[in-house]
From TrEMBL:
Pfam families for the chain: Acetyltransf_1 (PF00583)
Residue intervals of the N-acetyltransferase domain: 13-160
Lineage of producing organism: Bacteria, Raymondiibacteriota
Domain of life of the native organism: Bacteria
GO molecular function: acyltransferase activity, transferring groups other than amino-acyl groups
Name the record gives this protein: N-acetyltransferase domain-containing protein
Signal sequence residues: none
């Protein structure tokens, strides 16, 4: 497994990885992936702005990703929002830790001073990973998620 900076060459594979995690309906805020065109636009913006996104690659396929994207508003421009996912079958092997550390380091080099995220309360493995990396719980959105008529809290975390 290798960690690589975002690239257009891996767009299709990145899109498949995102769609795979989305279909699990457990970890991401959407249950479907994105079109190749949407994925390419997203990746092009990241590359153009030298933002922070890294892929975990195994056998030339994206098996995980992590990005920290800066907020656009002037008063929040020092803040980045973290998103990540690991394809089923590759979790609990340290890949998330490597991706997260590499992406945080890059985001810091790019000038971000605060990183924030939201995670579903049931995703205890991710919460442990974030806490191990220095994130702290800053709040909870009660019943922030509703899927299949079931509610779940969303934990808000930050790293300063």
């Amino acid at each position: 497994m290798v960690i690589e900076y975002v690239s257009l060459e891996k767009c299709r594979s990145f899109g498949r990885a995102v769609a795979s995690v989305c279909r699990e309906r457990l970890y991401l805020a959407t249950t479907t992936g994105f079109s190749l065109q949407q994925t390419e636009q997203f990746v092009k913006r990241i590359i153009k702005n030298q933002e922070s996104q890294f892929y975990a690659i195994e056998h030339d396929e994206v098996i995980g990703w992590c990005d920290i994207l800066p907020r656009e508003q002037e008063l929040l421009a020092h803040t980045g929002v973290l998103g990540m996912g690991i394809v089923e079958g590759f979790r609990h092997k340290g890949i998330g830790t490597e991706l997260l550390n590499r992406t945080i380091s890059h985001a810091r080099e790019r000038g971000l001073e605060r990183i924030e995220l939201e995670v579903f309360a049931s995703n205890t493995a991710a919460i442990r990973l974030y806490e191990k990396t220095g994130f702290v719980k800053e709040g909870v959105k009660k019943k922030g998620k509703k899927l299949d008529n079931k509610f779940e809290d969303i934990v808000i975390m930050g790293l300063v």
